[in-house]
Amino acid sequence: MPVSLARAAAFDILLRVEQTNAYASELLHSEKLENLSTPDQALATELVMGVLRWRSRLDEVIAAASSRPLSKLDPEVLNALRLGAYQMRFLTRVPARAAINESVELVKRAQKRSAAPFANAVLRKIASAEIEPPPAAINGDPIPGLAREFSHPDWLIERWIAQFDTQRTSLICRQNQRRPSTAVRLDSPDVEKELESDVIELAPGALLASARIVIAGDVTRTHAFREGRVFIQDEASQLVAALVGTGSRLLDCCAAPGGKTAALAARNPEAEIIAVELHSHRADLLRARVTAAHVQVINADALQLPFTDDFDRVLADVPCSGTGTLARNPEIKWRLTAEDLRDLQVRQVGILRAALQHLAPGGRAVYSTCSLEREENEDVVEEVLRDAAGFELRDCRAELERLRETGELLWHDLDSLLSGKFLRTVPGVQPCDGFFAAVVERVVSG
Ligand SMILES: C[S@@+](CC[C@H](N)C(=O)[O-])C[C@H]1O[C@@H](n2cnc3c(N)ncnc32)[C@H](O)[C@@H]1O
Question: Is the peptide bond before 257 cis (omega within 30 degrees of 0)?
Answer without folding.
Answer: yes
